[in-house]
Amino acid sequence: MTRYSAFAVVKNALTGHKGWREQWPDAEPKKEYDVIIVGAGGHGLGAAYYLAREHGITNVAVIDKGWLGGGNTGRNTTIIRSNYLYDESAKLYDHALDLWDGLSQELNYNVMFSRRGVMMLAHNVHDVQSFQRHVHSNRLNGVDNRWLSPEEAKAFCPPLNISKDARYPVMGAALQMRAGTARHDAVAWGYARAAAARGVDIIQNCPVIAIRRGPDGAVTGVDTAKGFIGAKKVAVSAAGHTSVVMQSAGVRMPLESFPLQALVSEPVKPVFPCVVMSNTVHAYISQSDKGELVIGSGTDQYTSYSQRGGLPLIEHTVAAICEVFPIFNRMRMLRKWGGIVDVTPDRSAIIGKTPVKNLFVNCGWGTGGFKATPGAAHTLAHTVATGEPHPINAPFTLDRFRTGRLIDEAAAAAVAH
Amino acid sequence: MSQFRIPGKGRVKHDEKVTFSFDGRRYEGLRGDTVASALLAHGIHLMGRSFKYHRPRGPVTADSAEPNALIGTSRGAGRFEPNTRATVQELREGLMCESQNRLGALSFDLGAVNDALHPLFPAGFYYKTFMWPRSFWDRLYEPVIRRAAGLGRAPSEVDPDRYASRYLHTDLLVVGGGPAGIAAALEAARAGVRVTLVDETPEMGGSLLSDPEVEIDGQAAWDWLAAALDELRARGVRLMTRTTAIGYYHQNMIGLCEKLTDHLDTLPENAPRERMWRVRATRVVLAQGALEKPLVFHGNDRPGVMLAGAAQSYLHRWGVKVGERAVIVTSHDSAWHAAFDLAEAGTKIVAIVDTRAALADELRAEARVRGIEVLAGHTVTGTRGRLRVASVTVNPVENGRVGDPRMLHCDCLLMSGGWTPSLHLFSHTKGSLQWDEASRTFLPGRMTEDCHIAGAGRGLWGYLDALSDGAEAGAAAARALGHAVEPTGFAVAHDRPGTGESHKELPTDRRSHRVRAFVDFQNDVTAKDLRLAVREGMRSIEHVKRYTTNGMATDQGKMSNINGLMIASDAVGKAPPEVGLTTFRPPYTPTSFGAFAGYKRGATFEVTRATPIDAFAEANGAVFEPVSLWRRAWYFPQGGEDMEAAVARECLATRGGVGIFDASTLGKIEVAGPDAVEFMNRMYTNPWTKLAPGRCRYGVLLGEDGYIRDDGVIGRLSDDLFHVTTTTGGAARVLNMMEDYLQTEWPDLDVWLTSTTEQWATVALNGPKAREVLDGLVEGVDISAEAMPHMSVAECRVAGFRARLFRLSFTGELGFEVNVPARHGLALWEALMEAGKPHGITPYGTETMHVLRAEKGFIIVGQDTDGTVTPDDAGLGWAIGKKKPDFVGKRSLARPDLVAGGRKQLVGLMTEDGAVKLEEGAQIVLDPDQPKPMKMVGHVTSSYRSATLGRSIAMALIEDGRAREGETVHVPMPDGVVRAKVTSTMFYDPDGERLKL
Asked: Which residues form a coiled coil (chain B) (predicted)?
């Protein structure tokens, strides 16, 4: 692997940048692998990387039906934070945040993790109670998160409207300074390059048709558009299409898939220094390093696998942004798009074993999978390599929907009285 | 007269001058000009700077695909917008324009140092650098990158304009008012179809506006156009100009954005600036035409280099010559016509340089007639000129070998790489695109919606083909709508169909890394960048796009996608369709946020629900709080009281005498029908069969997961009729849930559900004197303690109004809730206030309601529960009908983790120091001295100062809480640890004596 550095860029500039090699080879499948990961998003590629780096398992293939990083990794609004309420979630996301710190150096690929702070707005008494609970819980969990008055929130994010007359006035905010954004594509590419350098095969444009099981019920490999590929272990990390892939192994997943839309504005000079989220008015916004305002919407109301969203929800999202940040009314929307998110009954992820021997799954990230990327990948790799979950992902079992030990972050904040 | 304006020519009004400013200088243009055409008329091509290298740029198009000529536009305070396309913005009196993305003057931009250092900034360089030392990223690298990026400056003031939105239902929507669209609309309208025709420009006509030489059915193009539009109007076709179809959604819903005022000299009173239309069309015809492709060669981005079709448009529509000496570089016939038209207008055509060796004889002949030199089989290898193209170097190409250069002096270079169908909207529908090897372009394939594509959108060049195809599409749409029709034929003279060939970057004699041939002008992506991306392993067009940013500029790849694909597929060594085309996404052109938001701003962002009694609260100085969509009176301060004082007074007055509370926001659902009781048994945890008419019960509703979703008192009015109340925020959710079960799980039940939240106004009277207040006002029912015990309901009259009267209590005091038809709510309230005067009746708000209920340990769903609390956790195990065969959530309640030990249970908390009030949301630990992360055993759900008890009280969810009663727990706060004792949640009148009055 050619090492990336400013020096290397200057050196290559002298030869017209002819010296750069491919970042990952486009592999053709071998007959058999120790591990096959279905889904070449950040989670799947990251898991392959950690399998190779931390567990010495390099006979690994990551298979994707399209191009790597083309699913939700390349479609999200890149928000990274860990100020979750429950101990289980806080630990998982904080583990991810620890890995985000220094990921560029580790991968030798600048993923542009930007600790610009994530601020969550409270618009009513219920929000205040709920966010205070987060702040207190995070403080005792050693997770960075603090409470801001409306004036402090405005000082931190000048475009914010804190007028008391607003339809949903800002009553305060919870700020996690250590949180921020990253360049989503670079995360997939960086992991792909680092994994490939350690011998992992990345097989693109190769839809998995079915997971095959042997007479003892254990996984034997996958049938793909390029034929059968044997595997001792298979891990499915296919986001919105996980339920479809798992069905082929006879596992019915507790997942629903919804379109989730996002949009960007035309690029402008820096105007928005941080990330702001508002659950009450349903708006999520930051400004990319390219200058575009990056805005996230809520999930559409109907389940779907089509990566198209409707107009009404986007109208609501943009209205919410303009309500909270009225100076953006004359900005223009450049592009909007949809991804398919897989949602579990408690809206927390599943990372772990399945009822099928040697079949593992990582899914159910809903609208929040990007921020977990290194943490999910790291713990998934541990689970696949050792056959048992890492303590951090141990609570995120598939089994919890049978036993009832749910980790319901959304419910903890969702009900207005 | 401006130097480059041709008197009398074009569709502008030569006798109507319009003044505007650009970078502080005043200019004169004509009515009908765009900013670009007006500046070009003054010989100004330099209008902007590129994104990355700050290279000088001028307009390359005459339409909405413009990547270069982006400006800031303003009409005074609050009305500034960045990144406006100068080629689209119509001139208006006093329009203020500014150039963007420059450090210093537009003609001397210090940012252009990036251009000199360009070898250091190839595609994706930032993924490889800025990593060392690590701490520099936050403090130095990223801030510098951010400042360098972005184009215009964001608006800094609140927009004073209004925006509107409308629905439209139409039989046929035709998108694109060019010849194909007009023909389609004519055909369908003649068949009797209700048609809507939209075009993004100010004028219908499309390419006909730039091709007046054509004759249709014996008429000059513009005469035919005027007649056709007259006929459409006469037939009732809705013609919408300045209206962009921004997106194509499911089931033929199309979003249209109509611009209403940006072109007007003065703003009309109260008119919206833009209007968003949600159109539902039975059929759609997409006639969006085609986009001309630039050619890719070294220096193809200098001001003065522009698409040949754009030059032709500037000439015919705006009467502007884009230069005095033009060189044409083309691979398609259409540019020849532009050259001939310009020559006729007096521009010296230095040469027509065609990449093709074999050329049509007619074209050569016409060139000869005009004395134009033709260089066939040539390539362009470079241009010169700092702020405007001054010369171009052309070389012959023979057998793939580039011959000796020849320099041609010029002040404009007009290029054409042929045309590509505009299939953006079709692409929104996820219709498939098919590669057509003959024309080397993508054509529409499989349709997913009820639509037709006509004209250049199907790769048909030339007017006869476009008109005929449009008519056929209109006829097909009409037939699909049940009208019998045969499409009309057309006769076209002086047609200009044309053919051409398609290229990757043009051959050159330069060393490849010295070539700077731009593909995406705005984002400064060169052919070299695309090849680098492929070399680095980016083999999917999506990777190439994301790695190089090709196609991600504000034109969304209209200029760059196909050229980018040609180059990338050549580099990959595969056919273009195997490398793929990136997905086009809405909106078609950048669309203002305001148009999406529409009227949903400020007070109308979301409706504010107010109760019938809101006017009283408003008049009596209530402070309000938002609760879901409602605004509710929070407390009623008197004489400068703060919240704490007001709430203490309200509490004491209620416990000591009588308080009055507006409970109208409570959700109300009428459950009626022969199977109503069975339905209630299945929905709620409680048993309902034995509840007698006239009695009430506190009901608990669970989700499938066994956790509390809602609660409320439910009255049985008769065998088959229940009056269900829900939480304020839960009303809609509960009704949806009930309907969901009724319609999908239990369709056998004979039950009707009706939301009656807004039909009833609800007033609660609480306190030992409540009955005395009510006594004289009630008719038709005996409200004595014996006749109407706690948890009763009766239909009667109160204050003369038909009423449903409940005896219940959410305060622990003697309580009644009076429901009257909403229109009488305020009158009822006033009657009760009047009757209560002798008893010192006191209005109270939601905060007092919260305190009073907490003193009694009554929960608030969503505050004391959070979606992970079972009835047993909340101390409501008694509300579960043990003998019922089933209810929603019953099965889940038996799951192992829901019956295991260690569950969080709702308990009371009393701080050791009663003057200290815990914070809601504060976390509880057993050992305050443990290191972080601490083991938290629960959290404070509710916390108040109780005036009744003279101390603070709190409720909390704590692991095994009920078993810990009497123990001390710790609440670590930033400023010290608070100690508190676990207690029962019943802080006041534990035996309920006060209810027995």
From this structure: none
Whole-angstrom Cα distance, residue B208 to residue A330? 33
Selected residues 497-536 of chain B with any CB under 8 Å from a CB in chain A: 511-514, 528, 532, 535-536
pLDDT of residue B383: 98
Whether the Cβ atoms of residue A265 and residue B125 lie closer than 8 Å to each other: no
All residues of chain A having their beta carbon less than 8 Å from the beta carbon of residue B147 are 269-270
Q: Which pLDDT score, from 0 to 100, does residue A1 have?
A: 80
Given a contact cutoff of 8 angstroms between Cβ atoms, the answer to whether A402 and A355 are in contact is no
Q: Is the CATH code 3.40.50.10840 the one for domain B1-159?
A: no
Phi, psi of A134 (to 5 degrees): -60, -50
Architecture of domain B511-579: Orthogonal Bundle (1.10)
- Strand, helix or coil for residue B455: helix
pLDDT at A310: 86
CB contact under 8 A, A318 and B596: yes
Q: How far is B657 from chain A (nearest CA, A)?
A: 27
- pLDDT surpasses 60 at B1: no
CATH 3.50.50.60 in chain B: give the residue spans. Answer: 163-290+421-493, 295-416
* pLDDT, chain A, mean: 94
pLDDT at A343: 93
In the structure encoding, which two tokens stand for residue B425, read together? 């909207």
What tens digit of pLDDT does each residue of A104-117 get?
A: 999 999 999 999 99
Predicted confidence (pLDDT) per residue in B141-165, tens digit = 999 998 888 999 999 999 999 999 9
CATH of domain B163-290+421-493: 3.50.50.60
Residues of CATH 1.10.10 domain(s) within chain B?
511-579
The count of CB pairs under 8 A between chains A and B is 370
Tell me B140's DSSP state: I
CATH number of B295-416: 3.50.50.60
Domains of chain A: 24-78+184-254+346-403 (3.50.50.60), 114-180+256-343 (3.30.9.10)
A240 pLDDT band (50/70/90 cuts)? confident
Residue B920 one-letter amino acid: E
pLDDT tens digit sequence for B95-137: 999 999 999 999 999 999 999 999 999 999 999 999 989 889 9
Question: Which part of chain B has CATH 2.40.30.110?
Answer: 867-995
A416 pLDDT exceeds 60? no
Nearest C-alpha neighbor of B605 from the set B163, B260, B267: B163
Nearest to B82 among A268, A307, A333 (CB): A268
Joined together, the tokens standing for residue B387 give 């702020």
Q: Which residues pair with B241 in a beta bridge?
A: none
User: What topology is assigned to B663-835 in CATH?
Assistant: Gyrase A; domain 2 (3.30.1360)
Kindly tell me the sign of the dihedral angle through the C-alpha atoms of B700, B701, B703, B704: positive
Mean pLDDT of B450-459: 96
Residue B553 has pLDDT above 80, yes or no: yes
Partners of B593 on chain A (C-beta within 8 Å) are: 265, 318, 321-322, 328-333
User: pLDDT for B954-994, tens place per residue?
Assistant: 999 999 999 999 999 999 999 999 999 999 999 999 999 99
Q: Specify the residue for token string 């010989």.
A: B43
Domain B867-995, CATH 1.20.1420.30 — does that match? no
B167 touches chain A (CB under 8 A): no
pTM: 0.95
Handedness of CA A291, A297, A300, A305 (dihedral sign): positive
**pLDDT range class, residue B347, cuts 50, 70, 90:** very high
Q: Are A290 and A225 in contact (CB under 8 A)?
A: no
Distance of CA B790 to the CA centre of its chain: 51
Q: Give the gyration radius of chain A's Cα atoms.
A: 21
CA B357 to chain A, closest CA, distance in angstroms equals 32
Neighbouring-strand partners of residue A339: A260
